Amino acid sequence: MKAVKVLLIGSKLDGDLSTFLENSGYTVEKACSSSEVAKHATDTKFNLVFVHLDFPNEAILAYLEDLRRTSKNRATPLIGIIGTDGGELDEVTCLKARIFDYVNLPVVPDKIQQTLRRWIL
User: Fold this and answer.
1) Which of 41, 55, 93, 105 would staple 70 via disulfide (CB 3.0–4.6 Å)?
2) Angle 33-97-59 (CA atoms, 0-180°, nearest 5)?
3) Strands (E), the chain
């Protein structure tokens, strides 16, 4: 497997998803604030970004705007993570933020692998 760098945006992703990706051999970095997103986006080219939609919509859009400003990650696939209570509002947010795809919580390893294969493997 090629070296794959994944950025997780959102505090709630530092758990099952992070552990699954790390145990599967992916390099995982995490960001929980706009300044962390900006720093990671400037310093590192990611193969994929998972964004937990647990922030107010304006904050999500601002984080992703920071990420898209850098040439390194302008075309990096963004995958939204929608909570168990997610609905149409979160899907609309995904579209507005140019998020390529989304998966639902709880983390299901087979679904995450399908998403990884679809976008980067």
Assistant:
1) 41
2) 30
3) 5-9, 27-31, 48-52, 78-82, 101-104
pLDDT digits (tens, 9 = 90+) for 51-60: 887 655 567 6
What is the domain extent for residue 109?
5-119
Specify whether the CB–CB gap between 119 and 90 falls below 8 A.
Answer: no
Extract the tokens encoding 116: 């990884």
Number of separate domains in the chain: 1
List the one residue out of 76, 80, 75 whose CA is nearest residue 111. 80
Q: Would you say how long the chain is, in residues?
A: 121
**DSSP label at residue 11:** G
The region, left, alpha or beta by phi > 0 then psi within -120 to 50, assigned to residue 10 is: left
Predicted TM-score of the model (pTM)? 0.84
Phi, psi of 82, rounded to the nearest 5 degrees: -105, 130
Q: For the chain, state the CA radius of gyration.
A: 13
Residue 5 CB partners (closer than 8 Å, separation 6+) = 26, 27, 29, 44, 45, 46, 47
- How much is the pLDDT for 26? 94
Query: Averaged over 34-47, what is the pLDDT?
Result: 84
